[in-house]
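Ligand-bound model needed. flavin-adenine dinucleotide.
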Amino acid sequence: MKWGVSMPNEIWILAEQQDGKVKKIVLELLSAAIDFSKKTGQEVSALLLGSGLGESVKNLSPFADKIYLLDDPSLIPYTSDLFLTSIASLVKEHQPSILLGGATSTGKDLFPRLAMHLQTGYVPDCTGLSMGEDGKLTAMRPLFGGKVFAEMAFSGAGPQMATVRNNTFLVNDKPDRTAKVISVSPQIDPATIKKTVTGFEKAAGAKLDITEADIVVAAGRGIKAPENFKIMEDLADAINASVGTTRATVDEGWRDLKDQIGKSGKNISAKLYMAFGISGAIHHVLGIGTCKTVVAVDKDPNALIFNYADYGIVGDLFQIVPALTEELKKVLSTE
Ligand SMILES: Cc1cc2nc3c(=O)[nH]c(=O)nc-3n(C[C@H](O)[C@H](O)[C@H](O)COP(=O)(O)OP(=O)(O)OC[C@H]3O[C@@H](n4cnc5c(N)ncnc54)[C@H](O)[C@@H]3O)c2cc1C
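Prediction:
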């Protein structure tokens, strides 16, 4: 049988979960797949692997037509060996035309191996996907640290595979599907297991990743020195936020690349984004397009960031951040 010719070619999304909770990127990808399916009539399926997944099934159900459920204690924690053999055999059996996952550490580990195994095309770390009426995907991905963007199309047989960055798509707030759950026995062959996970260690003081946080507070070069980020951490602690930044401070070596917001960093989708001492260069604001409310503080009244802000304060961040932290602490302690 030729791939995707006489089978109903579904769009498959790898439904990554942690402790039984589906990751937000999964719902973003399923929402995009629902939009694609309106063009092509394809079914949307979630591929869920792990154990004790009742809550995840509930979360996924309105976003998919089918859930392929591979429930086995040996699939916790994730190892590429077991996921690879289980997913590859399912893909060969059902021949989806598209297989997408998040550009997460799991996605980045699993998808290239899977694509190699299936001998098919794979585009990593996409910041955009569009679907033609013929079911062909076009994938957009940054290259050379975001200096250029490549548009890539797939050719040949086999599923079109891509991993996509968080917050590339919005989560559909009125999903209306009801998934049929199809239980599948995973292919567990102890002979294929070449590594085992012996444990996890949480980084000291770790906060939610900026792509997952509801509130992100960020400082740019206006913060002047790495040690001054302490006032940002204090503000973040007071309101349960994560701390982001600009490329300028990352290039200075003041902050880690994982906290960089923007075109060559991460897209965030916070309910509240507060920018302090950030000029608002296009490369930065490209990463905040789906934030609900943006507050900007800059001493330059002509800073571009004010064009993207719902609320702006012209002033010195070294006065405003500590005052705001104290005020918010007072307000929150009376709630
Ligand atoms: C290919 C490419 C990709 C890029 N990708 C990214 C990206 O992903 N993310 C990103 O952020 N940038 C990116 N950049 C860099 C981007 O173009 C800007 O240079 C960068 O965002 C500027 O960072 P900034 O706002 O921190 O610094 P600046 O532009 O120097 O702005 C500092 C701001 O702080 C204000 N300020 C100073 N002191 C105070 C004070 N005491 N109180 C209040 N305000 C004060 C100033 O008025 C100014 O507006 C990229 C550039 C290129 C060429």
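Helices lie at 24-40, 54-60, 80-94, 105-118, 229-239, 247-252, 282-285, 317-333.
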